[in-house]
Amino acid sequence: QVQLEASGGGSVQSGGSLRLSCAASGDSFRDSCLAWFRQAPGKEREAVARISSLGSIAYSDSVEGRFTISRDNAMNMLYLQMNSLKPEDTAMYYCARRSYKYCSRASRDYDYWGQGTQVTVSS
User: What HEC string does the chain produce?
Assistant: First the structure.
């Protein structure tokens, strides 16, 4: 059984940093694409960052250069380092796993989801 548990959210001021973590259980972690999505009230869920099983990484334009995604296959962990945070980064952040080595930008392509962790950035 695959489970994902996200943590590390909180409230920070504009320009601050947070590090999100996602602990995963279950098999085939290293063979899976992993991603961070976010969803703000009244908006669609969007892919923020994703990392394939081979280590290929992609970011949304809105976070490129500020966020860094990483994974630790030995520990079954996924991370998102968020720097230079802006009020528009405020959202619920979700970690997700796709049962395939390559990533997708579409949330419908992901099979497992964490419960979400709230990030709030004040100006």
Answer: CCEEEEECCEEEECCCCEEEEEEEECCCHHHCEEEEEEECCCCCCEEEEEECCCCCEEECCCCCCCEEEEEECCCCEEEEEECCCCHHHCEEEEEEEECCCCCCCCHHHCCEECCCEEEEEEC
